[in-house]
Amino acid sequence: MDGKIALEEHFATDDTLMDSAGYLGDDVWAELKSRLLDIHGRRIELMDRHGIETMILSLNAPAVQAILDPDRAAEVARRANDFLAEQVQQRPDRFQAFAALPMQDPDVAIRELERCVNELGFKGALVNGFSQIVDPESAVYYDLPQYRALWSVVADLDVPFYLHPRNPLPSMAQIYNGHPWLLGPVWAFGQETAVHALRLMASGLFDDYPALTVILGHMGEGLPYSMWRVDNCNAWVGAKRPYPAKRTLGEYFRENFYLTTSGNFHTPTLISAMSEIGADRILFSTDWPFENIDHAADWFDDASISEADRLKIGRENAVRLFNI
Q1: Which domains, and CATH codes, for the chain?
Q2: Taking the model in full, what pTM does it have?
Q3: Is 287 a catalytic residue?
């Protein structure tokens, strides 16, 4: 399929490059580094070869979210966003942008989001999970009250917020002790992000801002498979929902979330996600440079779904969501 739009596609700056070291092993670091730093060369060649018209670019992880000093986080985010704006300006026919946000200071994050959307033309924000603030052992999640004003601005700007994974802090990850292979995209990324997303749903956030849109990658971080049980386990007890949200979490999932195919190129998983959330709320993505563009595109182009759904997921949903 030609004309695909992909939206979990990463790059790095000198400030953030080393955040990606170690995920895939020292033997492939030179290749990964080259992929992260390239925007207008090999990346566009692969896009052309595999029918991708546009990529929405975002900073690698955890980057800004792992910077303890709020002032430094704001500086790195602003520099990364300015750099990305320059790259998009060179090829607006091929690239769009998500803002990096210094969530360590919600007021600063609001101003940076407004600047990126209103002045630089960004299509939304991508944030790499919880933020650490001053204390390296802190893990601050965005259902907390101090972020309500930011969510209000996201809703007013009518742009999506992409909640991207990061690993849990070592002090909070004892279940992985002795099994480091479970960290990162194999398992820990998805579990960490799924819990964060459930916290947002349960907090009442989407009651306050019913038009708010959150995007999850990797076919929903396992949530499509689990949402029924989240809402219906032990239903015979008849207990009231033990959280502030007014509706079932599955309703928010189906009405306020979009999912991408990033890094999860498996047709049964895609069909499960389509059954749970609908083809209108799934978006094509590759997760370059951590996954291969050809693996994503070749799989998607041949996946056993209808051509109408392929067109929606590959292009039309993104055109509508991002006003491309």
Answers
A1: 4-322 (3.20.20.140)
A2: 0.97
A3: yes
